[in-house]
Amino acid sequence: MKDSQAPIEKLRQEVETLQQQLAEVQERLNVTEETLQAICSGEVDAVVVSTQQGERVFTLQGADYVYQCLVEQMGEGAATVSSEGLILYCNKRLSELLDFSLKNLIGSSLETFIAPKDRKAFLQLLQEVQEKETLTRELSLIAATGNKEVPVKLSLKQFKIDQLLVNSIIITDITESKIKEAAKLSQILNSAIAVINNFRLLTDGTFKIDSWIGGTQQLFGYSLEAVQADSSLITANILPEDREKALVSLVQNIKGGRSGIVEYRFLHGDRTIRWLSSNYVAEWDREQDCWVGIEIITDITQRKETEQKIAEQAALIDLTTDAIFVHDLDDQILFWNKGAERLYGWTATEIIGQKTKTLFNQPIAHTKAIKTTSEQGIWQSEIKQSTKAGNNIIVESRKILVENHFLKLKSILVINTDITEKKQLEKQFYHAQRLESLGTLASGIAHDFNNILTPILSVTQMLPLKFPNLDDKTERLFTILSSSARRGADLVKQILLFSRGTEGNYVILQLGDLLLEVIGITKQTFPKSIAISAEIPTKELWRISADSTQMHQVFMNLMINARDAIPDEGTLTICAENRLLGKHDALINLEAKAGSYVVVTVSDTGSGIPPELLNRIFDPFFTTKEIGKGTGLGLSTVAGIVKTHGGFVKVDSELGKGTEFNIFLPAIEGEVSVIPREKLLPRGKGELILIVDDETSIQEVTQTSLENYNYRTILASDGIEAFALYTENQQEISVVLMDMMMPNLDGVTTIETLQKINPLVKIIATSGLIKNRKLALDADVKKFLLKPYTIGELLQMLTEILSLYEDKLDDISPITSQYPSPLARVELSRDALATMPPELLQQMYEAAYYCDADVLLELIEQIPSSQATIANALKDLVLNFKTDIIMELTDLSKLGLKND
Fold this sequence. Notes:
- The protein is of the alpha+beta class.
- Helix content is 44%, strand content 25%.
- It has 31 helices and 29 strands.
- Strands 18, 19, 20, 21, 22, 23 and 24 form a seven-stranded mixed β-sheet that branches. A five-stranded antiparallel β-sheet has the order 4-3-7-6-5.
């Protein structure tokens, strides 16, 4: 008898043990549920999760911006109420809960919407709450319509705004949760929360279920009867990808004499997928020749979903580019994310347990930061740090004090953002701003300097004419003065090229001569320890179209770079050759095209360029030279100039051996442009020139120069004076010489005003800034003269603009008059015009009224060739600005005609 009771007693003990384990599992589930509720209600600031990699902290604090965005979209009602209960603010969700318009809620008393049974508790809540304290109560609200009670959870927190106490209230509708709680309670009372089965594991691996106890309907979705009738129903509904693994693990553990837990996914009877946990224990039964055990199965779906959410948050933390880590108040690192591994180079395994002040070798700074964070809750600053590889970086560091509400421990969350590149870009931006300011200053200086040089250049040409019989020494002095002034003008152009960019003076060049000049300069100025070798086949080189000044700058920059790359002794080589590039050869550079090129190679035996820097050498402001010895603009200027000339640059370098630059410039056909020898300057024919300039010296020199060459002049100091003089002398003035930058009325406005008076007015615009050329062209000015200009350049441009006008006059056969009256100075009469179509006459009248010479000339072209005499006479009137006579002749009312 005793022998028969022994197995039963043992089984009873095992059942009690399993029941105790079941209670522990239930307790864990309750804790998990309470944690989740605390997270949802905002009572938890952070969650610490123990993992194989150590403890991970997941902060739940959000920035103010997030709360501002959520307040109108949150599923809970939100309101701000006074200490007396008046609603000062509420969101749309609260309006929906109370079924009352949002507009009318503001200013109402919240007490009126509280269920009578809960009003006393609500008022007591308002009185009991203390500043920065959060109180939570469950009570009922009454909707404005229908007197329907809505169960809610009300959380209240008091704070000050400008010394005024107000209450922040969050109202959560718990109707659904109340219904679920009631259903859950009913379910717990009527069914078990776990399933227990007794099983046998045979020696051949067959699994037999002897009995089932508990809520199979809830856990599996199948009734107890169905499960007892067919135990394979449970195994069959384990997901295939989990089934074999779960069964193999269970069998191996039981045969090895071990208990265990297996987790797997199960297809519930309602066709949803649930996570189940099987906790089993078994022992060998000699009598039955098999393993006999008991299994407790519970639903862990909610726990798995929570773990998944936490895992997703952890993955996000690891995906971020920021370095995120946590250390305690003793500075010992507890958590180290993947972003920190990428930024600093140390893995979490290497770092956990170390101190940050030792790691970054900044004990004083870290101690102060920890102290400030502990006292104020937050600390932020930009700090310099070193990585595992020894690289120096700059990070924007933020430290936040985090409290573990479960363990009552405090730690510091650190978020470091790498801003090294940002700081470098800021430095380059500030550098560029300084250069921009220098460029603006240079442009202003260039304008004034050009105004100074203009009269100097003119005077240097006038004086030899005034004093023709000078001795050789005096003539040399004049030559030196003229050359110096021209060099000053060239210098200004180079300043403008750097500061704002200026159009090049493209001519056909024999590049060999320019290269020989550059080589001559370098041989005179470079250290004697640097041997300069050159191979320039001057006569054989093809010609290019280029600005000689800019080309000079390109090769001087390359030669200087080569010199600086040679530390002590070395060789600098420059050579040039003709080269044909085919379609395949053009692939060496994206900007290359098949064709003929002149290739200039500048090489040195210097230190070479590291491969990792080779792609950056043409970046503006990038330099490997010491501070004060390089601006980082030399090679970027070279690349920019070569590109504007249609060429490209190729570079090869090897550390310790040197660097080679190949400059490819497209070749063209044509004769080399030569500076023409001085010839007799063109003279005028007594034409009247209106000189408009605010610089008195320029006025006087230009006036004297033009009068010496048979021109008459009148002077204006600004646009207003020019307008008055032109109106008075319109019939006599042949050309207006207009400065673009003047006080009172600038050049562009003055030009537009003069063009309204006379659309055919001839204007030469002048300025010391090349950018004003575009303004002049946009104002329909055909000629632009850049200051400082010589007398020859001015006289040549006057000849061109006057001859251009005379060419137009040659196309018209003028008809002279035999009569003294203005209307009879041409062979025209109203009777002759009366034979023309009234529509044409009306159009001519309107065009004459608006002084539109272009339209008038187009209309005159429509006159039949049989009336060519009349047409020519009308053209003569247009070109002589006598549109008033055309108006008189084409007036239909005076011709007795009507325009139908």
